[in-house]
Amino acid sequence: MDIQVAQLTTELKFIKNGMFILYVSPFPSALIFLMMKLLLKNMAISYLICVSIFVVCIKLVYRNASAHFSALPSPAAVAGVRETDNKIYLLVKEEKRYMDAQLYCHGRGGTLSMPKDENTNSLIASYINQAGLTRVFIGINDLEKEGNFVYSDRSPMQTFNKWRSGEPNNAYDEEDCVEMVASGGWNDVACHITMYFVCEFDKENV
């Protein structure tokens, strides 16, 4: 029996699952085997039950761990933060459509970034440059009424804007969302394209 226990613990010590290799202490395996041996006279049945119980446990642990970690944001997806006195800006390096980007920000207690003055616009533009990007979605659109651009919090645009020359032009009658390029200029773009984006949060709510 000692030889079979040693063989069992050796077989169960390393279990390879995809890219993951799990190390298992030999003691629990041996203990399960010995318990089964006490309950059953047949050595082969004891062995099979032990292996079956062990594999099921490993699968359950792996499944729960995978579900937990897949729900966490990837550290590589976030390019740091920028702050002002009242706001926090988060550049998210995950390509999403405009509405999905807005939902992402909203789900975390914020909104797509709303550059309502020169200082904020310059901060976001600098953020884009330092991250090595060329453009991001910002929280401006005219989805409700063509040509009537508003911020993502539905507040109307005032006198400040950074439209690039010839913009907004609503090319192909489908450009209802807005991107900021690395220079700080704005373009209207189609909402269904995907790109990185910047979320904005009120410090008092963080």
Concise summary:
With 206 residues, the chain is an alpha+beta fold. It is 37% helix and 25% strand.
Give the tags:
5 helices, Mannose-Binding Protein A, Chain A, 37% helix, 4-stranded antiparallel sheet, alpha+beta, 206 residues
Compressed to H and E, one letter per element, the order equals HEEHHEEHEHEEEEE
Question: How many domain modules?
Answer: 2
In terms of structural class, how would the helical and strand content be classed?
alpha+beta
Count of individual beta strands:
10
What is the spatial order of strands in the main beta sheet? Answer: 3-4-10-5
Q: What is the subunit arrangement here?
A: single chain
CATH-assigned homologous superfamily of the largest domain:
Mannose-Binding Protein A, subunit A
In round numbers, the mean pLDDT is: 77
* CATH fold-type name of the largest domain: Mannose-Binding Protein A, Chain A
Give the N-terminus to C-terminus distance in angstroms: 61 Å
Continuous helix count? 5
Radius of gyration: 28 Å
Backbone shape: globular
Major sheet, described briefly?
4 strands, antiparallel
Low-confidence region ranges: 1-27, 29-36, 53-62, 64-73
CATH C-level class of the largest domain is Alpha Beta
Tell me the β content: 25-35%
Task: List the SSEs and their pairings.
Blueprint: H1 2-13, E1 14-17, E2 20-23, H2 26-39, H3 43-70, E3 78-83, E4 87-96, H4 98-107, E5 111-112, H5 118-130, E6 135-141, E7 150-151, E8 177-181, E9 186-189, E10 195-202
Antiparallel strand pairs: 1-2, 3-4, 4-10, 5-10, 6-7, 6-8, 8-9
Keywords: Calcium, Collagen, Disulfide bond, Glycoprotein, Lectin, Membrane, Secreted, Signal, Transmembrane, Transmembrane helix
Domain C-type lectin: 84-200
Protein name: Collectin-11
